[in-house]
Structures are given as C-alpha cells and as structure tokens.
Amino acid sequence: MILLRTGCGLLALAIATPSLAQTPDAAELARLVQAQAAQIATLQARLDRLEGQQAAAAAAPVPAPAAQAAPTQVAQATPEQRRTVPFAPQLAPPGPAERNVAQAIAARENPSGVTTEWGSGLPVFHSADGVYTFKPRGRILADVSSSFGSKSDGRNLTTTGMRALRLGLEGGVGTHFFYQMEADFSENEVDVVTAFMGWRNRISPGLEYDVRAGHLFNDRGFEGSTGSDSTPFLERTTVATAIIPQRGFYGIGIMPRLFWKTGHASLTVTGDRVDGTQTVSDGRTFLARAHWNPIKTDNAVLHLGAWGFDESLSPAATTLTRNTVIGGRFNGALRVSTGPLLGGKGTTGYGLELGGYRGPLWIMAEAGRRDAQLDGGRPDFTSKAWSVSGGFFITGDLPPYNPRLGAFGQPKVKRPTFDGGPGAIELTARYEDLNQTDLLTGGSGWAATVGVNWYLNSFTRLQLNGIHWYTNNRTGDYTGGDSGETLSARVAVTF
Known about the structure:
Keywords: Coiled coil, Signal. The chain has about 500 residues and is mainly β. It has 2 domains: about 1-115, no CATH class; about 130-495, Beta Barrel (Porin). It is about 15% helix and about 45% strand. Strand 6 and strand 7 (about 190-205) form a beta hairpin. The longest helix has about 35 residues, at about 25-60.
C-alpha cells in the first residue's frame, strides 16, 4: 500500500513538473532514488511504530538513557516497584538509517524528552538531561474510633476523622539541590506542614551531608521522627507526643544532617512554626539527635539513639498546658492532662532509644523526660514517659526500618496483593506510660495496645488497634482513676 501510494505520488509529480518529466542524468536519478528511499523508510518506520505500540506496551520496559535514570532521592521506590518508560515509546529497528528516522519521529512528537519513573503510586518526572526532577506526593489516612468501658459516659464515644489529608510536591535540580512542600487539610482547613529547600553532597565515600532550611519536621526520638503514615500504630508513643517542644512537631529554621554507613546525626535550630504573628519575637529551639547501628546486616539491625532539646518560649506563647493522647486521637475526652499552666519560660527535654530487628521480628524501647521552667518563683515541673513496642511479620517481610534516618519508613512488600500475593501482615504490641504527677494539677496514665497491620503493597495499608487504657487526672471534667477500651481502625494510602 505504501509503495503504491508512493509510486502514484512520483508519477503525479513527474507529470506536473516539466523538468522532472525530462530524462534525468545519472546524478539526478541517484538523487531521486535516495530521496525516495528516505521517504519510504520514514513511512515504513511510522507504520511499524503504529502497529507495534500495543506489543511494546506489553513487553518488558526499555531502560531509560543513563542521564534520564540518574539516581535521585526524590523517588523512594525499590527497583521492583519502579517502571521507567518514555512518554512516546521509541522503537529501534536494526538498521542505522531506520533507527535515525524513528528517533527523529519520536523527537518531533516528544520534543522535551521528559521521562516518567513510577514509584509509590505516582510518577517522578525527569527532564531529558536528567537535571530536573519533580514528583507530586500526598497521603490519605482515614480513621474510625470507638471507646467504651469508662465510668464516665462522656468518654464512651464513637468518632471518625482524617488523621492526615495531605497534598504536596518534591523535586530537585541536579544532584545537590532539592525541595519539598506539603499542606494538610485534615481539620477541614489548610495547615502548612513540611516546606523546605535543601542542599546535599558527599564528603567522602560513605560520608554524606545535607542542609535543609524552611518549615521542618522534628528529628526527635524513634517514633517522633517517623511520619504519621509510617508509624506501626495508629498514634505515636507517649514519648513522642509528651516529651516534645511546646511549639510541637514543626518549626521554621535550619537543619544540617550528617550520614555515615551505620548512622546519622542532626542539629536543628528553629523559631516557631508557621503562623501570622510578627509583632513579638519567636521562640527558639535547639534540637539534636544521633543514632548508631553497631550491628547492620541484610536481615538484622541493632539501633541505639539519643536526642535532646532546649526551648525558650516566645512572650506570646507562655502557656504550657498539655493534654496528651493516651487511648486514641479521635476521642478528645480521653487525655492525660497537666491542668491549666500559664507563665512558662521554656522547656528542656531528652530521651534514649534502644531496639532493632532480626528477620521479621522487631522491638523498640524509648524513654524521655521533659522539664518545664515557670516564672514568678513557682516550682518547675517534670513529665516522664516510656514505651516498649514490638512487631512480627507473619508473612516473612522485613520491618520497614530506615537505617539512614533511624526511623520507620514505607515497607518493601515482597508479594503485593495487587500482584496476586497476600501482601505483608504484621502483628504488633505496645505498652506506654506517662507521669506528670510532680505537678499538683498533673495527671498520669498508661495504655496497652495490640494491633494488626495489613500492607496491601508498599504504599497502601489497613490497620486495627485494640487499646486498654488507664488515666488518673487531677483536674478537668474527668478526674480520678478511670479505665476502658478503645478500638480503632485506619485505611491509609501514601503516594
């Protein structure tokens, strides 16, 4: 068909053009034959490409050029999770001439040369030269919680809530500059969370650093440094939620970090978190953490960690009152409270971490202390918390421990349900304790939790927690000893 159309075209061209109707000399004839051959090759390559698209899509992915597949820390997927395909598939016929024609056609249809690398649910975009990367990101964590057994009916609640509803982006320029920003909508209003720019580089083989500046998430404790989408339980331990700067988990500032083969260290200097107050000075927080893996093999890790912070409060934020989650985030009546506490000057806290994993079994113990300074000659007060957590993957998967950061990350599910496997199934248990009773209005409490996590793949999970809790508050609507149970469940997707 192609040859017939081409022959007709040449005949029409010869009739319409007197100069071509004449008998051409040898040079002219060679030029015509060469032009015709190029046209036939172009049309044949285009036809082959159209007929082969479906087969090419079903075939194994063609690796991207080295410049496009350069290693980047934007994508956190494993090689098994990645799939790199150009936006416009390019077929490469054996002949050099046909290869050049096919590449020319692809260049016209995809002049930018942008490629996409599929990781945890969403693509990472790469520029043709590999310099620029960009990735949308987000998380959806939907919870339901029911508490019962309390002596106070006001605590026996069934509620729903969005633990996180985030949208954001991350990217980089070259191998050194990177950025990230996320906003959360879980309380039906916009809350800026992570938002920073950074620079990373290698000092020597096995020794690297990065420096981030902006609205930063704390590097504080094992679960305190773990994102809400990666915690093995629906809520972090009392060490992470009570032994914390008054400003919370975020602050605007700078954080240099140093990484080596068996650990990392960080130093953070921040003011307050994102707000609209510029009429008084911000608070100031110094925070440092380090972790070390003296044992680190393919299926075993020993984790040691230590951290501490010192915080000077802003004149506009001297309230030290705290109501700490003990039996579920979405029951506002179920808290361990300090009672009303005004006139704070600052806080100091520190903690220790010890744990690790061997094969599918992991365990982690944390302990921390927070001292709060009050003005007016009043006595200071102390909060103490500790916890022991553990888990076991009955499907044989390894715990999602991140040795670079000394925290939990997204798991690497060996047999995802979307590929016909069982996913990864984890059984968990935890005991945690919080004591603030050296303050006259301070309360205490503890909780024992058992749970099960079903990871459908590396970014989708179902979680179920059963919690038996006890509180003894000295002020508020629910004073004295009280105990009960909370059953909570979560559906989570991180991308």
